[in-house]
Amino acid sequence: MEQQLYIVRRNSGMGGAERVAERLAQNFSDRYQVHRLWAGNRFNGHIIPGRKGPPWWRSWWYTRFINSLPIYHQNSVVYSLEYGPNCDIYRAGDGIHRLNVLRRYGASKTWMVNPWHWLAPKLERNSFESARYVIANSELVRSHIVQTYPNVQDKVVTIYNGYDEAVFNVAELDKAAIRRQLGLPVEADKILLLSGSGFERKGLHHAVKVLTNLHEHGCKAYLIVVGKGDSGYVQNAIKQAGLVGYVQYKGVVNNVAQYYQAADLMVLLTRYDPFSNAALEALACGCPVVTTRNNGAAEVMKPFSGLVVENIAEDQAIEQCANFIMRQSFDASAIAASVTHLTSSNEKKAHLDVINQVFEEKKRQR
Description:
- By secondary structure, this protein is of the alpha/beta class.
- It has two domains: about 5-160 and about 345-365, Rossmann fold (3-Layer(aba) Sandwich), CATH 3.40.50; about 175-340, Glycogen Phosphorylase B (Rossmann fold, 3-Layer(aba) Sandwich), CATH 3.40.50.
- It has helices at about 15-30, 55-70, 95-105, 115-130, 140-150, 175-180, 200, 205-215, 235-240, 255-260, 275-285, 315-325, 330-335, 345-365; strands at about 5-10, 35, 40-45, 45, 75-80, 90, 135, 155-160, 190-195, 220-230, 245-250, 265-270, 290, 305-310.
- The protein has a six-stranded parallel sheet with strand order 2-1-5-6-7-8, sandwiched between helices.
- α6 packs across α10.
- It comes from Methylomarinum roseum.
């Protein structure tokens, strides 16, 4: 019987974890019979539930269905990127839920009215405890896992995200030519880029503050925002600073590599990111990154490839970012070369080693 690989992620789409699930399926389809189990897909004669209802209901119903499937056997590996389902390998790419709640709500108790915040830790614990191996995509995530679940310490393997070297690389054209192609302001002193989903968590308000500071110092910079999220909460700040027109929203784009190549810097002052794919992709394109210590991707950055802010809440942090952007010049080739060990092919090999280890362990247990 051919070896089976089941990839479990409730959502399908363009989010970070969803892209990882798709990449895993593509990478291993030549080695195993691969099945992607996402809500709305058909498997074993049934439509997988989990697309309708509030978040807690979608996750509970999806987990219940996945755990009922005949996929847990000696000739299979269940690789989960989702809270809840039983699995052989759990990729903890969403971090630790309790810590995420603390970051978002602080001392406020308003989280308590949301049933999801009560259910998620129970689902999360099951994922950690059922897995033979837990994959963290940064040492930041690994430390949070061990802090919260010390009993799984020996299971945890760190595998950094990888980028597609055929797509993300230093452009042959100069920035001005790429900017003209994309309709970006060629006359800008600096073009800053924010790329990602969920603008509040990604730090759009901090990026607007940096832009404001740059303009106060006579630097006519533009902020280009790529991805999806709610930008309404920063509109008043943009108007009050006189920056209408200097912040441009492009939505979800298919050619994001060109935006990395066109930008002077990526500004991702995130509240928390286990490991930002966008930051890694920007570096691979030779675009320096300004981010926070709460981004796992900060672990792979060098002093010449950007700035890591220790605490974005400190008064001087915005000024620090603006000064860095105005005063620094960058070597795109050196920045790109600094992450060549983080290609998708190397990531694939690391995952393959873990998957094969599970198959070997199951074989010995027969």
